[in-house]
User: Fold this.
Amino acid sequence: MSSSTATFSSSSSSSSSSSSSSSSSSSSSKKQRLSLALHNTSNTKGPRVAADHEDYNKTAQTVLKKKGVGKHDDNDDDDGEMAKPSFNAAAAVSNTVGTETTHNKRKREEEGGYTSNFNDNVPLPQLQAIMRDDDEEEFFDAQEYGQEEEQIVLVNDDDDDDDVSDSSSEDEEEAPRIPNPEEVELEYTYPQDFLGCRSWQDVVARGQFFRLIIDSSCMEIPDDFFNNCFGLIELVFRENSCLTEIGENAFLECYNLERMNSLPVGLLRLRQNAFKRCYLLCLWGELVIPYTVVLVGSFCFAECLEFTSVIFQNNPTTAGNPVELGRFVFSNCILVQTVRLPQNIILIPECAFYNCLSLRNIPLPLSLEEIEEEAFFHCLALQSVDLPKRVIRIGDRAYGECRSLVQVIIRATEVHYGRAVFTKCPALVTIQVYPSLWTTLFESMNEDQSFLFHFIRKYQSSKWTA
Assistant:
């Protein structure tokens, strides 16, 4: 059986160069990383999630002041809604200051290399080329943006600091010092120390900082039990744990939770918002999800700003049940660079990795069938995508605003594209796709004039024998 594929590729001499990551996770200190996180995540998502993020900026800045981690502009508190990301966010991540034209920006992006997320063991078909024309740079600038890009300005707020009232300074001085995990002496054990209690507030006095030990006999942590537990510094799961479920909102907004050992094998479900907005939770850089987990609920680890990789363990004996991920599950995890998905996953849900600014390496398992809308929206460092042959649906704006995306391979023979799947991906040079699919791809991109302008419909016939 023989078939053909089409490749959309660049005709300019710079097409072999790839885009360098516009996202950088190399901040020299936690202060810089958290300050950047507040700037970006406060301007990311539209009205759909505005209600969920309404108090995010105000609460986060209050926590960071008490923690002694950096200062933030009070003007950011005016609007709790999370708006769409701008060029300011992208430039802030790449430490680029000042005005930069699209032409110069693309030249700078094409100087570096990119990391491949391709499945190298799967043979690539012979290619049929559609050429991308990069000769008319000025026309592209006018068509896509219509005006000069916004300037990134560094503001010296020293004068503003002088205007702070004496009473505010006194309040900040009176705020308790947040101890490191090594300094914490007070410990509580769940459930023994919380029998008959509705929440942690029935046991722990305000202002106390403590370590929480989950006893090996505990089977479930109830919904909301440690919600907004300001004094929780460290979470410890004992060996041979019987824990099977962490309830909804169980550790939501535990702003000072900094350390947690590995989630226990045997855990089945992580419910919605379980660890959402645990800003300082670092996990020594790596979040490991046990192979026994079958559900990671919506927003479960959203806005966790410190760990850099997410690893789903594979079942060593059997394929196991498919893992279900909830909406926005890792959204706004701005330092995550690498994700290893479970090998039996079928669907990547809506906004699962939304605004993961540093994400660059996420191989897609062969079992994957569907990618929902905005699943990888505004992943500024993502540079290559290899979609397995079972992927039959790609949702609206699934890879929108991936500004470092250079190359895409679509292996399926039948795909339903949502609207603007690759919108505002200025570095995109090559798309490999079966000829029967390229017309529907262009139809889905008809709202993005820059995409249509760059990829000119010219064919070079060839065939690939399966």
Summary: The two ends are 6 Å apart (CA to CA).
